[in-house]
Amino acid sequence: MGKKIYIFDTTLRDGEQTPGVSLNIDEKLEIARQLQVLGADVIEAGFPFASKGDFEAVKAVAQNIRGPIIAGLARTSKDDIDTAWEALKYAEKPRIHTFIATSDIHMEHKLKMKPEEVLERARTMVKYAKSLCPNVEFSAEDATRTRPEFLYKVIEAVIEAGADVVNIPDTVGYTTPGEYGAFIKGIKESVPNIDKAIISVHCHNDLGLAVANSLAAIENGAQQIECAINGLGERAGNAALEEVVMTIKTRSDRFESYTDVVTEQITRTSNLVSHLTGVLIQNNKAIVGANAFAHESGIHQHGVLNCRETYEIMTPESVGLKKNLIVLGKHSGRHAFEQRLKELGYDHLEGDKINEAFHKFKDLADKKKDISDEDIEALVKQQVFQVPEAFNLEYFQFSSGNSIVSTSTVKINYNGNAVEEAACGDGPVDATFKAIEKATGINVKLKDYFLKAVGSGKDALGEVTVKVEKDGKIYSAKGVSTDVVESSAKAFINAINKIHYYANHME
Ligand code: KIV
Ligand code: ZN
User: Fold this and answer.
1) Ligand 1 atom with the shortest distance to the CA of 73
2) What spacing in Å lies between the alpha carbon of 355 and ligand 2's midpoint?
3) Cα–Cα distance, 373 to 298 (Å, whole number)
4) Mean pLDDT across 76-105
5) Which residues are involved in binding Mn(2+) (predicted)?
6) 368 and 252 in one domain?
7) pLDDT digits (tens, 9 = 90+) for 332-389
């Protein structure tokens, strides 16, 4: 089995720093629950001092999630650390994660502090954090561009002050595997008290090397990897959790290590994160992309049919991809549908929700012959993660063509009143969005719109993701239907309902 590698998931903190991503408390809790099922050792739930929303989210995760360590980020300042502790103190296993930059460029131009001041600040604030919380991690931001001799001194000082974990981030994604491995080895050999702490790594993907760098660090003594689902994170993102974990598993011969991640939960976790963040996964993404286990060429297909290992180094089942041979359709009953929901991991759905999902399934079966697992998931995810529907879209009707101005009429129910409005726009989707804005009285800025086919075939479902901005906040929502204007209208009204819900239920 070898050495245990701790998986520190930062989807909810660094991952939330992905441009255009903003998660509310319920969404963060849902992801944290799934990370717990996935078997992450540490969940970094947020940066409590950064905003009230972040504080409440970290607190909610600390109160509700048992099993993994719950970490909260804090700069090396008393206010940050106090706020982090206020949110984390409810956790079964809390961790304060405090950081300060140690590279010359950051100390001079960002912090405007002398190296001795940074060293002293790191030491005193780790000591302070440790007086509050039994478990403390220290990060030397921009470590890979830090003079090694100075970094050794800082690491020695923070371990002496009580740090349990020392993190060596490649903050700007600058290093390379050979160089980073040697850097970690240098720390191991030069910091006298290094055996009293765990070495952690946190790599950004600016040069596409985050996973390779993290693995090089493992080979040189690091024991914790900070990573995010689907590789989310600041700029080009962080090391992708699924890639790190599956490499350690698939090449355990080389790494002589293991993680406690339940790899069969990877696909489900990846889909959930993509759904809630609105960040789509590229088809050729390793491990979780739609093509990751697809064999296109005849030679490959032939090889796999004869002996799977000819072209498959890991099985689709090992990451939780199951191919169901029984396809559901119009004649399938509630029992078969419920059974399939359970197999897909929706075993916590209760009576009303199942009824509602079953009706949606029947409606779809009238329009589409074979209903795949992807179709069912697309329908059910809508429902599970939907806020209560204050505005209900009763109908919409549009006229459009290549030589006329598109117009759309919508009827929306709100609090027992029905409102009908019409609008013109650049195409039927734009006209429908404008009519919905008029009818609900909520105007937003459309930041992003994507349309994706779920499955294949002419009758495939169209899944629309919209990201809208209201009062500086981003809300993402989805809608699915066999008609793309309807998917768009559903996604847009779902986003409006989210805005309404969170305006009335303080985050
Ligand atoms: O990239 C980075 O350096 C960070 C630290 C705060 C760990 O995210
Ligand atoms: Zn980072």
Assistant:
1) 6
2) 43
3) 26
4) 98
5) 14, 202, 204, 238
6) no
7) 888 888 888 888 878 777 778 888 888 888 888 888 877 888 888 888 877 777 788 9
pLDDT digit string, tens, across residues 445-501: 999 999 988 877 777 889 999 999 999 989 999 999 999 999 999 999 999 999 999
Considering the domain architecture, whether residues 489 and 447 belong to the same structural domain is answered as yes
- Ligand 1 atom nearest the C-alpha of 226 is 7
Residue 506, pLDDT score: 56
Q: Same structural domain for residues 66 and 164?
A: yes
Residues 437 and 306 reside in one and the same domain = no
**Whats the size of the chain, residue-wise?**
507
323 in a structural domain = no
Question: pLDDT value at position 478?
Answer: 92
Q: In this structure, are 404 and 300 located in the same domain?
A: no
Residue nearest to atom 5 of ligand 1 (CA): 141
317 has pLDDT over 90: yes
DSSP state at residue 446: E
Domain range for residue 347? 334-384
Which of 141, 145, 213, 214 has most ligand 1 atoms within 8 Å of its beta carbon, as the pocket-test mutant? 141
The per-residue pLDDT for range 455-467, each reduced to its tens digit, is 777 778 899 999 9
Calculate ∠ Cα 293-36-384, nearest 5°. 75
pLDDT digits (tens, 9 = 90+) for 123-158: 999 999 999 999 999 999 999 999 999 999 999 999
Determine how many CB atoms are found less than 10 A away from the CB of residue 420.
13
Question: Residue 10 CA: which ligand 1 atom is closest?
Answer: 8
Q: pTM for this structure?
A: 0.88
What's the total number of domains in the chain? 4
Are the CB atoms for 101 and 143 separated by under 8 Å? no
**Minimum-distance ligand to the CA of 76?**
1
Q: What is the identity of the amino acid at 228? A: A
Which two structure tokens, joined as six digits, stand for 169? 């981030």
Does 87 lie in the same domain as 19?
A: yes
Q: Is residue 282 part of a domain?
A: no
Same domain, 43 and 168: yes
Task: Please tell me whether residues 181 and 151 are part of one structural domain.
Answer: yes
| Residues contacting residue 93 through CB under 8 Å, at least 6 positions apart | 68, 69, 70, 135
- In this structure, which ligand is nearest to the CA of 72? 1
* Type and span of the H or E element at 336: helix 334-343
Q: Residue 120 carries which side chain, given as an amino acid letter?
A: E
Q: Is residue 325 part of a domain?
A: no
State the average pLDDT for the chain: 93
The residue whose C-alpha atom lies closest to atom 7 belonging to ligand 1 is 139
For ligand 1, residues with CB inside 6 Å are 14, 99, 139, 141, 167, 169, 171, 202, 204
From ligand 1's centre to the CA of 498, what distance in Å?
31
Asked if residue 287 belongs to a domain, the reply is no
d(CA 184, CA 160): 19
Return binding residues for Mn(2+): 14, 202, 204, 238
Residue of 16, 18, 99, 142 with the most ligand 1 atoms within 8 Å of its CB, for mutation: 99
Widest distance between CA atoms in the chain: 77
